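call fold(seq) -> tokens
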Amino acid sequence: MSAHPIHEEESHGSFGGYVAGFVLAVVLTAASFWLVLHGGFPRETALLGLAALAVVQIVVHLVFFLHMNTSSGQRWNVTAFGFTAMTVLIVVIGTLWVMHNVSMNMMSR
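ret:
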């Protein structure tokens, strides 16, 4: 009988998994710095590239360090993360929409 029955089915990462996650995180961070410091891309392209690298890095952290996956034991964690992400998107997009409308209505006077 285990002293901690709640943690029996959770799998913790191996040393190799942590090293792979660390290397991927460092490579993605270096790619982000290179993209900005290179300066050879138009501003919009650089912003889209940074956003894509940020999303990939979030996925790397979730998979390699927080051990989120599609197993039945992780279902509630993935659901909670999805709800949190959706809420943040609604708040950010709603704020940008409201600020844009305020700016347009105030500038017309």
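The radius of gyration is 20 Å.
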